[in-house]
Amino acid sequence: MSAASPATTSRVTVPDFVKAKSQGRKLAVVTAYDFLWAGLMDAAGVDAVLVGDSLGMVVQGKETTLPVTLDEMIYHGELVARATKRALVIVDLPFMTYQVSPRQALKSAGRVFKETGAGAVKLEGGVNQSRAIEALAAADLPVMAHVGMRPQSVRRIGRMSAIQRNEDQLVADARAAEAAGAFSIVLELIPRGIAKRISAEVKIPTIGIGAGPECDGQVLVTPDMLGLTEGFSPRFLKRYANLAETVRTAVGQYVQEVRSGEFPTAANSHE
Ligand SMILES: Nc1nc(=O)c2c([nH]1)NC[C@@H]1CN(c3ccc(C(=O)N[C@@H](CCC(=O)O)C(=O)O)cc3)CN21
Ligand SMILES: CC(C)C(=O)C(=O)O
Ligand SMILES: [Mg+2]
């Protein structure tokens, strides 16, 4: 069944996700961190739900993704996988749960698959993580790579918003990820022309965030696209709703009606 047909109720598998590229179907990916939102995203027809380590920022209120633990990713991954009936569920491996060695990557990913019900994991890296990607692929654990701006490298780069422009490095990273056995690659914050070249040169689907329209799919952080993170306005973001404003208005009205006695009415009460 096709990855891009929300009408179907059958599960999007990793092979379905990969096949979308050769079939010319763009892939729509969003993040989710809990049961409620994962269910809403799944019902809206996304191809994949990513349990991103952006959890650290959007859910936990931290400055970076570095403090997020594997136990936390597994806790949230299980909530999301249980709510998601149709989309592919991908769980980010957090900082320092795979960089030590391929053996550590296997142990961390193994826990994700055993304990969450996810269909794939993601890690940040290309050339530098090719041995980890190879180890996971050899164990039949589907792995997505992530090249360009890598938030887990913020201490070297200095900030999380730096557009990555080294074309030779980016192309080498994408090629290495494919050669090592990644089933897909996230391209984050890179020039559109480089993303176009990479998407043409690799057979696996590229999923862009701030990488332009020539990628094989797109990913956005759900609270960003729904207008819940109002201070965050990078160029790549499009807001499809203004939920923060909706929440302020609705809850403000509730507060006022409780104080005035307008809520609850007889209709809201039991005799
Ligand atoms: N809420 C949220 N949304 C995200 O997309 C996201 C996270 N958190 N946390 C992890 C990473 C970090 N990301 C970021 C963070 C900042 C920019 C940013 O400020 N970009 C600006 C400046 C680019 C520049 O000129 O250097 C932009 O306009 O794109 C982009 C991506 C993407 N990821
Ligand atoms: C922005 C996406 C690609 C991500 O890695 C995350 O949400 O953590
Ligand atoms: Mg991430």
Automatic annotation (TrEMBL):
It is found in: Cytoplasm. It comes from the Bacteria. The keyword Metal-binding applies. Pfam families: Pantoate_transf (PF02548). GO terms for cellular component: cytoplasm. The keyword rRNA-binding does not apply. Its cofactor is Mg(2+). Mg(2+) binds at D53, D92, E124. Pathway: Cofactor biosynthesis; (R)-pantothenate biosynthesis; (R)-pantoate from 3-methyl-2-oxobutanoate: step 1/2. InterPro entries: Pantoate_hydroxy_MeTrfase, Pyrv/PenolPyrv_kinase-like_dom, Pyrv_kinase-like_dom_sf. It catalyses: (6R)-5,10-methylene-5,6,7,8-tetrahydrofolate + 3-methyl-2-oxobutanoate + H2O = 2-dehydropantoate + (6S)-5,6,7,8-tetrahydrofolate. PANTHER family: 3-METHYL-2-OXOBUTANOATE HYDROXYMETHYLTRANSFERASE. Belongs to the PanB family. Homodecamer; pentamer of dimers. This is 3-methyl-2-oxobutanoate hydroxymethyltransferase. It comes from Caulifigura coniformis. The lineage of its organism: Bacteria, Pseudomonadati, Planctomycetota, Planctomycetia, Planctomycetales. The gene is panB.
